[in-house]
Amino acid sequence: MRLLDYFRASRNNNSASIAKERLQILVAHERSERNKPSYLPQLQKELLAVIRKYVTVDRDAISVNLERIENQEILELNIVLPENRGMNQVRQRA
Amino acid sequence: MARIIVVTSGKGGVGKTTTSAAVAMGLAQKGNRTAVIDFDVGLRNLDLIMGCERRVVYDFVNVINGEANLNQALIRDKRCDDLYILPASQTRDKEALTVEGVGRVLDELSQSFDYIVCDSPAGIERGATLAMYFADDAIVVTNPEVSSVRDSDRMLGILASKSRRAENNLEPIKEFLLLSRYSAERVKLGEMLSVEDVQDILSLELLGVIPESTAVLNASNSGIPVILDENSDAGQAYTDLVSRYLGEDLPYRFLEVQKKGLFGRLFGG
Q: Are A78 and A63 in contact (CB under 8 A)?
């Protein structure tokens, strides 16, 4: 396979297709970040405040993520509870 | 009411000022009263490209601050009566441009002009965001090169979220792609992203492709917008682009490798 790649590369220096592939991945990623709803940080902050009423957790123990798969949107909450209470991990999908 | 066009890119050195000068001249040549404004406060250069650097008395910031009125600051182009240039200030004060100030100047210009071309500085600082804030149309100048394409996409995000149209839920800014410094030879060799590649990535309406051309440096050396060099490839590409912007349906030229005839070979035409 490597040998084949070598021949392919030596025949045609096709760096443009590498550039295109890299850009397509990068731009798709950056666009999905950009299109996240603006309420996410606020939601994360408020959730953290509620959880802290009951359990002492770190600021970065909670992550809120929105994924878009075709027509479905999945809001993922990931809360890591402190270790001294056992390895609890609450994971909810809504 | 004038139509406000921003020429933007994110990345520097891709041809924003060259494009602003060419597009403004092209629009004016067709009888549209056109003003072109340099938003690059502190690094004024549009005046040089337009060849009016020795006629600058007052600038954009003077008008915003009420130190001069618009008629005193606008420089009338010597080649085209319908074209006026509003130069940037050379102040180092980053706060010199304000939303209110820029809005006021654009409003006043709108009363008597058909088109206002805003030449954006590189980057995403105040000058760049204000240049696009009031825009109706955006020409996104992109080179077929990874960092320029990425930065253009970043500007598309800002155009869609941080403009007057976005904030007031109006019809979004119309965005157009201008691909510049294009080399059909290198695209053919697989060394450069093609027009189709860049369109696949950015999904933008193509306004025009400007070939890499010696005419651009020659034009800027002499302070003549390259669109006036009617014999050059870049000049013709800009002329096509302006017509296309005004609604004409023209084929894209300079996308194929130009076969040089004997004359071309001898004289490097």
A: yes
Q: How far, in Å, CA of B118 to CA of B36, rounded?
A: 6
| Alpha-carbon gap, residue A82 to B174, rounded angstroms | 50
Chain B residues with CB under 8 Å of A22 CB are 146
- A16 closest CB neighbour out of B153, B161, B194: B194
Kind of pairing, strands B174-182 and B205-211? parallel
Determine the Cα–Cα distance for residues B159 and B38; give it in Å rounded to an integer: 19
Task: Report d(CA B236, CA B240) in Å as an integer.
Answer: 6
C-alpha B32: how far from chain center: 16
pTM here is: 0.83
Amino acid identity, residue B264? G
Answer yes or no: are the C-beta atoms of B120 and B155 closer than 8 Å.
no
Radius of gyration (Cα) for chain B, nearest Å?
A: 18
Q: Is B114 exposed, middle or buried (0-12, 13-18, 19+ CB in 10 A)?
A: middle
Among B226, B65, B63, residue whose Cα is nearest residue B74? B63
The pLDDT confidence band at residue A32, using thresholds 50, 70 and 90, is: confident
Contact A66, A37 (CB under 8 A): yes
Mutation pick from A20, A22, A26 vs chain B, by most beta carbons of B within 10 Å, is A20
Q: Provide the ipTM.
A: 0.85
Kindly report, residue by residue over A44-78, the tens digit of the pLDDT.
888 888 988 988 888 888 888 887 777 888 888 88
pLDDT in tens, B202-218: 999 999 999 999 999 99
Task: Please tell me the least confidently modeled range out of A43-57, B11-25, B70-84, B163-177.
Answer: A43-57
CA distance linking residue A52 with residue A58, whole number of Å:
9
Q: In B123-189, where do the E strands start and end?
A: 137-142, 174-182
